[in-house]
Specification:
By secondary structure, the protein is mainly alpha-helical. Helices cover about 85% and strands about 0% of the residues. The longest helix has 30 residues.
Length: about 90
């Protein structure tokens, strides 16, 4: 998928910018690209979180994430326990 996105960017830069606005030629291909992007986004995020945890430590990463999540949503903290559990298993 990353290779596809790179080639798409190159094509848009040098050949045809409409590949971004028009999208894939068929609904099936558009669905496949969408599913690949949905899979790529969380995979990319977890790789970055793991790398940051390796650099600053899992505890500090969880504290930083908690601060951001609490600031973004003061009403719901359900996700915080799940995030702590995930990083506890990684430590």
């Amino acid at each position: 998928m990353a290779d596809y996105l790179y080639r798409l960017r190159v094509k848009a830069n040098y050949e045809d910018v409409t590949v971004f606005s028009d999208g894939p030629p068929s609904d099936r291909e558009a669905t496949e690209v969408g599913a690949d992007l949905v899979a790529l986004a969380p995979a990319t995020l977890i790789v970055h979180e793991l790398r940051i945890a390796a650099i600053i430590g899992s505890d500090d990463l969880v504290k930083a994430m908690d601060a951001v999540l609490l600031h973004a949503s003061r009403e719901s903290t359900d996700g915080l326990a799940h995030r702590r559990d995930l990083h506890a298993r990684l430590s």
